[in-house]
Every structure is written in structure tokens, then in C-alpha cells.
Amino acid sequence: MVNVKAYSPQQILSELAALRAQLAHLQQNATIGSMAAFDPVLGDGTPETWHTFTIDAGYTSTNPTVYRLMPWNAVWIYCDLTHAAITGATNVNGSNPLPSQYWPIGTRSIGGPLYPTSRCGAEISASGVIIAEPLGQSCTGVNINGFYPIDV
């Protein structure tokens, strides 16, 4: 035998009103499918936006050189650079590293070449310096459109 608690009509209406109030609160305050990172340099809750970074002498850029923090603790870097000749690991922004809030905990790869015959791969150091890495041969450009984690 199952014990069933009897509710008066007034109790049922009271419980129903409380559930409706909770539902209304959830509908008013919930944001579904939206994630945002906040600018870690400002630290005041300002939403993150694209930031430009300064490239070292010898490089030219045909597009903006930009980065931004993503909500899952990764940084997205985008740039399309050319250089006369990259024959070994060459700093892209050695004189102007990214702010420390965007540094990974160790050197991380941030993208391979789009055109293997003339493009370098890239990585970022634990001090915020982007490094062009030729893949066994001299290259003349660096295309980066990739992410790297800052916390692993």
C-alpha cells in the first residue's frame, strides 16, 4: 500500500504559484548558448574584444595581427605575415610580447602552415612571444589562425 499525502486545493494552488514564480525567474535570468570571456588585462568585467599586437622589424602584414581570450581559457591568434627569409626559429613579436594574462604555461604550437612550401608553423612561448618555425626549409610567411590553451 502506498501512502499518499492529501493536499487541499489551497495548498496545491500555493505550490503551483511558487513553481510559476521560480520558472519566471529562470526565464528572466537564464542565457542559453552564450559564453563570453572578460578582458583579463582590464579585470573589471569588460567583455573581451580583439587586440592588436606589434610585429618585429622584418615582417609585414596583409591583415590585422590580432588575438583574444576565448571563454574556455584559450587564446585565438590571427595574422598573415611575410618575411624575406625565415631559416630558423624567428620571433614574430619578441620586442612586444603579448600581455602576461595571455601567456601559456609552457611553449605551445598555435598552427601549422596553410601553404607548406613557403609558410612556417608557429608557436608561442611561456613569455608571450610568437615564434615562426620553418618546417625543414626556409620559408617566407607565417599564417596563424589558431588557438592555444593558457592553463594546460
Task: Describe, in short, the structure shown.
With about 150 residues, this protein is of the alpha+beta class. It has one helix at about 10-30, and strands spanning about 50, 60, 65-70, 75-85, 90, 110, 120-125, 130-135, 140-150. It is elongated, with a radius of gyration of 25 Å.
How does the SSE layout of this entry go?
Elements: H1 9-29, E1 51-52, E2 59-61, E3 66-70, E4 74-86, E5 90-91, E6 108-111, E7 119-124, E8 130-133, E9 139-149
Parallel strand pairs: 7-9
Antiparallel strand pairs: 1-3, 2-4, 3-4, 4-9, 5-8, 6-7, 7-8
Care to describe what's here?
It is elongated and about 85 Å long. A hairpin with a 3-residue loop joins strand 3 (66-70) and strand 4. The chain is built from 1 helix and 9 strands. The protein is of the alpha+beta class and 152 residues long. It has a domain at 51-149: Sandwich (Immunoglobulin-like), CATH 2.60.40. Strands 1, 2, 3, 4, 5, 6, 7, 8 and 9 form a 9-stranded mixed beta sheet that branches. The protein has one helix at 9-29, and strands at residues 51-52, 59-61, 66-70, 74-86, 90-91, 108-111, 119-124, 130-133, 139-149. The termini are far apart.
Index terms:
alpha+beta; 152 residues; nine-stranded mixed sheet; 9 strands; Immunoglobulin-like
